Model the fold of this input.
Amino acid sequence: MADARTPVLVGPTAIGKTAVALALAAFWPIEVVSADSRQVYRGLDIATAKPAPRERQRVAHHLVDLVRPGERYSAGRFAVDAAAAISSIRQRGHLPVVVGGTGLYVKALTQGLFAEPPLDRPRRDAMTAVTASMDHSMLVRWASRLDPGFDGGGGRHRAARAIEVALLTGQPLSWWQRSAAAEGSVQPWMVRLTAPRPVLHQRIQARTEEMLRRGLVEEVATALAEGAPAGGPGMDGVGVREAVAVLHGTLPRESLASAIATSTRQYAKRQETWFRHQLGPDVVTLDATRSPEQIAAAIVAAWERVAR
Done:
């Protein structure tokens, strides 16, 4: 396992990435580096489908439970933290495996991000107050108008950031990213999991029902009671924002499962589009309808073929 490459396992939400990563531990001495922008938030275990405690005891997971809901955690910060975790894992003689569905995090780690332009702090604070008053659909609408490269993904935080950068610098965020890209921190070996849409939709529905059964609404209520701002970073993700709507009386409880499943399907579609177009040509694409153990064996076989 003295290979300089780092396996990066990606795919849409509910495709089964965690189960495959755990199955890989039967073949390799791995530790997982999570590339999930929602799992960094403490206290939102059900809402973000974090690995269970017993699974994290079996295989170490890094970059989970880092910040409180309401605190911003950027892709640039992730790239620094992930690079440090990967280095530490390798020093222990283990293989780091990056696992997640947040495309911008994967890009930051493997390709690098731009150095953000300097923004006047008082003007940025004023702009933040304005964007905080907008609902999600309005944020996406304005971000799309101001930045032709904005794809609608990434939640409230990314949309608000696109608006701030465009208005405060005179250039859209996508322009800054194209003109000032930096080197990535690792040499990735990309593996993408995919499945027919009906299969993925069935898994999304099943996971939604399981999250509600386990107490998603109660978990979100606890986060709000502890001071997490509704609509703030970590509280604007799929599942959380719908639970907040139920708690605030703007969404009927009987409509919650349907609303979460619909939002999750839309998010998964955006993820799949991003991974199809942003990962480059050298990607191992695997059918995720097979068992996690079969997929893990296919990953190991593909790794060994290119290592020869």
